[in-house]
Here is the input.
Amino acid sequence: MALISSLCIFVLVTHFATPIVCHERAALFVFGDSVFDSGNNKYINATADLQGSNYFPYGESFFKHPTGRVSNGRLIPDFIAEYANLPFIPPYFEIGKKQLIHGVNFASAGSGCLAETSGAIVLKTQLKNFENVIQLLKRKMGKTESHKILANAVYIFSTGSNDMFASLVPNSTFPYSDREYLQMIMGNLTSVLKGVYKGGGRKFVMLNLGPLGCLPSTRVLNLRIGVKNGSCLEEATNKAKMFNSALPKMLKQLEKQLPGFKYTIFNFFKVFADSIHNPTKYGFKISETACCGTGPFRGILSCGGKRQRSHQAALFVFGDSLFDAGNNNYINTTASFQANYFPYGESFFKYPTGRNSNGRLIPDFIAEYANLPFIPPYFEIRNKHLVHGVNFASGGSGCLAETARGAVMDLKTQLKLFQNVTQLLRNEVGETESKEILSNAVYIFSTGSNDIFSALFANSSFPHSDTEYVQMIMGNLTSVLKGIYKEGGRKFVMLNVGPIGCIPTIKAFNFQMGVTNGSCMEEITNMTKMFNSALPQMFKKLEKQLRGFKYTIFNFFKVFGDSIDNPTKYGFKISETACCGTGPFRGILSCGEKRQVKEYELCKNVKDYLFFDAVHPTELAYQQFAALLWNGTTDVMILRFDEMTS
Here is the structure.
């Protein structure tokens, strides 16, 4: 505590001619690595080594729960914020409901100045996230006020250590000289600082690198090469010193080039090294051995037991627009089957992701409850770890290839993509490990509604009876489930079809046909009930045929229907009219001006609404559905989702 307190006083008072956090809008914007990451890595698809620390015992001393901070409690920016009378600065991926005027934390554990460093959110990506925040701030506060906030804010950085660790390559295989590598780092860091300056930033605080060679994890490396006296790893310390020597030169150049550029460097190396060599001076008893870890000096980074994956319950997602997290962004289709434009995504992500809502979907919340990162769309798995799962869902798709043929990925195509992933998984983790992942994974489906729409809006020459058509759907669905089982899947979760005869787009259609009382379309509801009646029968057959096959069906029809009929029970004010759209019930699917109808209305308070657009629920509704899916009662599901993952 004494160490952090002295740092905060140093940063805020000593090195600026005037205090830099006294303005009423003295925001704090945070960039860097695990020294500053307050939870961003929880939201990226990365290994546990890079996911911050969103598991116990991290966070136990102050927050009493893990937050993603790599400590038992608060970090330097948390104390800086406290001393500046600011609230906790929120991670970028949690700014949905937070005020931006106090600042945002963009830091990502494992990141560096160079894109090649780790799989985290590198510094240039953090800059892009900052640029997104600037636009949000201008939209919220206006150009003049946002300019004032940005100019008076402090921009604090902790970066470079992971770049240096990345260069500690054995056998002389590293392709750059120390000087070349350092120039690359400084070049990227300069570019980011100029980017922040261009966005309006003027006041910069930089931590130089700490004594990297004296950390418990690097002392362990020394032991491995035969140095048993517990000394520091000299090569790592020398690299830190090189960085620290170049840093003030680079900042002085920027000070000359950029009018109003103001900076300070905190000598983190000196203070941290002194606390290691003289722990009692800072109130500590032990400085060479970590509190949590294994091996010599507890220097093996195993704290929390999550560093090596064990029985990971991955999540594989299949289906339609209720689950599509962005796959349709990448296929050749119409805007009718996409949601990669505003106002989609505005409430949580602050930008459109391809999700058909103002924020997250059911699989996003399920992943959160299961302590998983966001499950990536299939077309975004490059550079992502597959061990947590993949999302194959495609908006507009159905069980049948004929449903929106050529414009979406039907369920059998999604199965083929899953088969590709199983092969990639074997390549990544090996045959034995991939088999374990696939058998422990949960496979969640939302499908069938578009097949029903397709039948009912076909012309009168539709060649099948309702019974025949439902049998065709069940046949294709059975085939896909068996295909997943063949690849190793054993645990299946199915949403039955919701009350699609009662959604705004159908009520608007009814209205145009002369039914003006806002009633549901009975024909659609009847076919939905036929599908939902056939579904458990099909699953029971599979359970008998396939050894180890385990399933649950979530009664989405009941839960969604009840929320339409009794909105206040679920915290909504309006359940028949969408937040975004045009026409009766805002039931014309025009949200975002990219579809056939270009004009649309947008509600003032999305939290009042059950439906975001003419077809799809709001994030808040999805969250409630996901909570019931995760641990609901037997009247809405056979087996709870959390029981499936155990």
The two ends are 39 Å apart (CA to CA). The CA atoms of residues 3 and 271 lie 8 Å apart.
